[in-house]
Amino acid sequence: MNITTCEKNREKAVLIGLCSPPELPRTLVEEYLQELAFLADTAGADVLMSIIQEKKQRDPASFLGKGKVDELAVFVKENAVDIVICDDDLTPVQARNLERALECKVIDRTGLILQIFAIRAQSSQAKIQVELAQLEYMLPRLSGQWTHLSKQKGGIGSKGPGETQIETDRRLVRNRISLLKRKLREVLLQHDTQTRGRLIIPRVALVGYTNAGKSTLMNILCPEAEAFAENRLFATLDTKTRRLELKINKLVLLSDTVGFIRKLPHHLVESFKSTLDEVLQADFLLHVIDVSHPAFEEQMVVVRDTLRELGVEHDNIIDVFNKIDALEDPGALGALRMKYPEAVFVSAARGLNIAVLKEIISDHVALDYRERKIRTHVSNYKLIGYLYEHTEVVSKRYLDEDVELTFRVHKNSLKHIDALIKPLLIHDYAVADL
Question: Which positions bind Mg(2+) (predicted)?
Fold first, then answer.
């Protein structure tokens, strides 16, 4: 049980969790509650106390045992606590019973994350997605909100105005959900129309646990990105895409995506699948990992599991271990390099090894390039100029009145370029086969 002081003008919160050794040890639950405290801080609450009860199974009526609920009720009353936050999902019955016993707001981890998303949402698309997720979360929890109106006796005439009000609310919520889904489809259609020209350019997406430093990395790779970055969870909700110049006529579109987290609400994943389409459409992913976090390997597993849930089945992923400057043990970095030999180790905040990361990105992009060689008359300046502008020209050789060009082109542009040069083609082969 940890008790702290709080700032003014912020809600006072208490966190609760269950441990069941050896399957779920207390130390692990303490780590989960530390993350929950960070979430609460992001949402605008100060945590006064964290409570962990050792219990094999959660109480179906009130989550915690009766004795622990009574103890918590005293603390809530004496300290004017505004909200109690549970690390696990609460059933509607558990939430309602806890609110009655504690006489304060009670929410679970999912509700807290949804609240943070609502605070962070800036664009119209993000606001629609968040409201959609909130309503789908709220729908099964509407029961019990109107018990003061319902009949208490059974038999004929027991269907009172309370139940009617519940059904009315459910219908209104379902209608709003349908409307939001329609609006979201329209926004996505408009977005697809606006970004259709991007399809021929290689695409790379930044993914990772929330607060791993994706936006900071985005800003140092693409200084004009101006991605919002701060030491808060879910600083980024809207996908931001910028051009990353690698070499002459060789670039990628780099996208910064929403961070993942343990127990990411299912409704949120479903609602934000359109935003996370950038992850599915990317040629490869940069998995940004906060190597200074004590549970970074567990966070890596969470990200990989979430990617699978989204439908990412390939392993074209580069692990980017960030915040190496924050490692306290001097020998830790060497051990990590041994354990993860294919990974890149950087500090986005200090700009360490960013040039190495760019080179690795360039090497991965090169795997999807093919090399072409053509011979054409020197007067064919229109085609020659087009190839210089849209491909990576490797060599040029003059043969009498002809010019022989060797160039590289990405697979996304291959069909279009081949249609232009087919009569002039001398030889082609994959860059990877050179």
Answer: 215, 236
Domains 2-116 and 369-433 share a fold: no
Query: What 3-state class would DSSP assign to 45?
Result: strand
Q: Which residues contact 232 (CB under 8 A, 6 or more apart)?
A: 42, 211
How many angstroms separate the CA atoms of 333 and 325, rounded?
10
The answer to the question of whether 324 is labelled as a binding residue is yes
Instruction: Consult the annotation and say whether 215 binds a ligand.
Output: yes
Mean pLDDT calculated for residue range 133-158: 59
239 in a known ligand binding site: no
Domain ranges of the chain: 2-116, 121-150+160-194, 198-366, 369-433
Residues 311-333: tens digit of each pLDDT = 887 888 999 999 999 988 878 89
Cα-only R_g, the chain: 28
- Is 325 part of any known ligand binding site? yes
How far are the Cα atoms of 141, 151, 273, 361 from residue 160, in angstroms, in the given order? 19, 5, 40, 65
Task: Say if residue 214 carries a ligand binding annotation.
Answer: yes
Q: Is 20 annotated as a binding residue?
A: no
Do the annotations mark residue 236 as ligand-binding? yes
374 and 426 Cβ atoms separated by less than 8 Å: yes
CA 404 to each of CA 267, 380, 388, 393, 426: distance values in angstroms, whole numbers, following the listed order: 57, 12, 13, 11, 9
Taking residues 65-82, report their average pLDDT: 94
Q: Is 210 known to sit in a ligand binding site?
A: yes
Closest by Cα among 126, 123, 124 to 272 = 126
164 appears as a binding residue in the annotation: no
Q: What is the CATH number of domain 369-433?
A: 3.30.70.120
Q: Has domain 2-116 been given CATH number 1.10.3570.10?
A: no
- The pLDDT, as a whole number, for residue 248 is 60
Write the pLDDT tens digit of every residue in 212-253.
999 899 999 988 766 655 555 666 666 788 889 887 667 888
Segment 281-297 shows an average pLDDT of 92
* Average confidence (pLDDT) over 297-316: 88
- 9 annotated ligand-binding residue: no
CATH class entry, domain 198-366: alpha beta
322 labeled part of a ligand binding site: yes
